Amino acid sequence: MSFLLEPSSQRGMICFMEERDRRVAYHEAGHVVAHFYFRSVVDLQFEYVTIEPDREEGSAGHVKLIPSGRGIQPDLFDFTLDDEMNEEACGMTQRELEARMSILLAGEAATYVLDGRRDEHGTGREEWSGDYAGCMEFLERLFWVEDEAEATGNRAAHAYMEALFWRMAFTFEMSAWRNKLDRIAESLLKKRKLSAAECHSIYTAA
């Protein structure tokens, strides 16, 4: 049995899908721009970016990363150490740690710059999903994160994550970086998928 929408409903559905695709394109473009922005700090490589949904993973779009095998070695990252000591003891500097989290948060920062909307995340574990949940690998090594949402460690982790989010949003609002973001997002909307090489070409030309 086929189901036909009325013309007005069809127009509404088309507008909804176009808006959804635009937000997804900006979200993924945000990750891409952040990858290049932080390339002098962290060596993360990716194969491609797409706004095609992945139903198995439950994602509206994604950046296909190339595994690096690099991560923090001990269970706890110590803010009191300087960066040389952090790298020796933990396998990662604080600058690299912040860069990795900023790349994760750059998607939502980009959509916020696009339309002023964002998902609100509280201090509880159950409220951290998607890219925010990806930050947990790092946050749990920085703070004593507990199941109790209002625990001091949870509040500190959330505040730290918010600071990184707003730093990325501020960066994308600067004309030079907004231009790079717009160019990659618009290219994604046209082609649906871009290789890392195509992204780099657009990024450097913008």
Structure in words:
The chain has 206 residues and is mainly alpha-helical. The chain is 59% helix and 7% strand. Strands 2-1-3 form a 3-stranded antiparallel sheet. The termini are far apart.
Q: Could you give a short account of the major beta sheet?
A: 3 strands, antiparallel
Distance between the termini: 48 Å
Mean pLDDT over the full residue set: 81
- DSSP strand count: 3
Low-pLDDT parts are 1-6, 72-77
Strand content: 5-15%
The helix/strand order is HEEHHHHHHEH
Shape: globular
Radius of gyration: 19 Å
The helix fraction, in percent, is 55-70%
Largest sheet: spatial strand order: 2-1-3
Determine the structural class based on helices, strands and strand pairing: mainly alpha
Number of helices: 8
Helices and strands, with pairings:
Layout (H helix, E strand, L loop, with lengths): L6 H31 L7 E6 L11 E5 L16 H8 L3 H22 L14 H5 L1 H7 L9 H22 L1 H17 L1 E3 H10 L1
Antiparallel strand pairs: 1-2, 1-3
